Amino acid sequence: MMSERVPDPRGWPVVRVSEIPVEPQPRRWLIEGLWGAAAVGFIGGPPKCCKSYLGLDLALSVATGTPALGRYPIREPGPTLVYLAEDALPVVRERVAALARHRGLPFGEVDVHVITVARLRLDQRDDLARLFETARQLRPKLLLLDPLVRLHAIDENNAAEVSQLLSGLRHLQRDLDLAIALVHHTRKTIPAGMAAGQGLRGSTDLHAFGDSNLYLRRQRGRLVLSMEHRAAAAPDPVGLELVSGDEPTIHLEVTQQMAQGHPPSEHTDLPQAVLQALQHRPRMTRQALRQQLGVQNERLGRVLIDLQDQGQIHRDDGGWSACLRAEHRQAIGGGGDHTVPRSPL
Q1: Which of 24-28, 265-269, 314-318 ranks highest by mean pLDDT?
Q2: Is the dihedral of CA 8, 23, 28, 46 positive or negative?
Q3: Measured between alpha carbons, how far is 211 from 41 in angstroms, rounded to an integer?
Q4: pLDDT tens per residue, range 156-167
Q5: Where are the alpha helices (DSSP H) in 69-178?
Q6: Residue 113 DSSP class
Q7: CA dihedral of 183, 184, 189, 194, whole degrees rounded to 10
Q8: CA nearest 45: which of 181, 233, 172, 209?
C-alpha cells in the first residue's frame, strides 16, 4: 500500500514515485485509430466540411459497435449522448436514421441519446451541472457537443476564459470516464505547413486540450480526414466522400488512403520519408512532420539538420521546404548551385 506523506497540514498529499501503481493496461481505444477511450478532443474543420456528419457517424458507431466510417473498429461500445445546437431535432433524427439504414441496423434499437433543450451553455455552472448529472445517469461512452461556438459566451481568444471552460469538461471526462468530442471551426486561412490543430479558431489552449483530434479539410476538391493523438502515432490521412444511395442513406465513406504505409521505425529511411512528405506539401513545420511521420522529436531534428547541410531542404519562418534541384533551378531561370544558409531548429 502506498504511504502518503503530508509535509504540512495545509499542504498537498505526496507519494514516493516508486510507489505509484503501474498502469494496469496499455492505452485503450474507443475507436481504433480515431479516438481514445475517455479521450477529449475536437472534430475541427472549416464550415460545410461534414463535421456534424462525422460526429454522428462516431456516435452511431460507438452506440452500435459497428466500424466508424465502415473501417475503424469499435473497441468499447456503449450508449452515446449528443447535443447539436444548430440542428432541429427532426434533422438529427433523420441523419442518424440514414446512417443506421445504410448499415442495415434497426433504427429503434440504436442507443444514441439526444439532449433536447433549446440552449446549453458550458460556461454556466447550472448548465454544466445538469450536463454532468445527465451523463452520470446515462453513463455514455461518448459525448458529442456540436458546435462549441454555440455552447458558450466567452472570448475564445482569451486563454484564461477558455481554460476555465475546458477544465469543466475535463472534470466531467475524468469523473465519469467518458470520451468527449467537441465540433469546432478552424480559421479561414491556415498558413502552409502549419499543423492542423494550430488552425483551430481561438486560443492555443484549445489545441493543447485535445487527447484525440480529427480534422477535416478540402484539398483540391476532395474531403480529407487527418487524425492526431496525444499518446499514439496518427494513422495516415484518408479521403472521404458524403454519398447517398437510391433511398435516404446519406453517409460518409472512405474513398482513398492519402499516404501509404506505417510511421517510420528506427530502421526506416527517415530522410527519404521527410523528403517525400515535403514533396506532397510545399512547406511543413517540424511539428507537422512529427505528426505525419510519427517519429521522436530528437531523431527528426538530426535528420532535418543533415538534409539541410546537404542542401536538400531549407527552413524559413513558415517551416521546412524541399530545395529545387540544380537542373530545375536552371530550367526556371535560376543560377547554378548555391548553399542555403543553415537555419536553427
Answers
A1: 314-318
A2: positive
A3: 6
A4: 999 999 999 999
A5: 89-103, 125-138, 159-176
A6: E
A7: -80
A8: 181
- In angstroms, the first-to-last Cα distance of the chain is 46
Cα–Cα distance for residue pair 35/176, rounded to 1 Å: 17
* Distance from C-alpha of 67 to C-alpha of 70, rounded to nearest angstrom: 5
- CA–CA dist 163, 171 (Å, integer): 12
Q: CA 96 to CA 94: how far, in whole Å?
A: 6
Which residue in this structure is represented by grid cell 498502469?
23
Could you say which DSSP state residue 240 is in? E
Name the amino acid, one letter, at 261: G
Q: Is the pTM of this model over 0.85?
A: no
Domains of the chain by residue range: 29-257, 270-331
Q: Is 1.10.10.10 the CATH classification of the domain at 270-331?
A: yes
Helix (H, G, I), strand (E, B) or coil at 197: helix
Q: Which residues share a beta bridge with 142?
A: 80, 179
Q: Is 41 helix (H, G, I), strand (E, B) or coil?
A: strand
Q: Please give the class, per CATH, of domain 29-257.
A: alpha beta
- 169-189 residue pLDDT tens: 999 999 999 999 999 999 876
The residue with cell 453513463 is: 139
